Amino acid sequence: MKRILVTGANKGIGLAIVEGILLEHDDCHVFLGARDPARGAAARESLSGSNSDWSERVEVLELDVTSDASLERAATALCASAGDESQPLFGLVNNAGTAEGSLAEVLEVNTYGMHRVCETMLPLLQDGGRVVNVTSASGPNFVSECSADQQQFLLDPELDWSRLDAFMRECLTLGEDEFAARGLGSGASYGLSKACANAYSQSLARAHPRLVINACTPGFIETDLTRQLAHSSGRSPQELGLKSPAEGARVVLFLLFGDPEGSGHYYGSDCRRSPLDRYRAPGTPAYRGQ
Ligand SMILES: NC(=O)c1ccc[n+]([C@@H]2O[C@H](COP(=O)([O-])OP(=O)(O)OC[C@H]3O[C@@H](n4cnc5c(N)ncnc54)[C@H](OP(=O)(O)O)[C@@H]3O)[C@@H](O)[C@H]2O)c1
Question: Is the pLDDT of residue 207 over 90?
Answer without folding.
Answer: yes
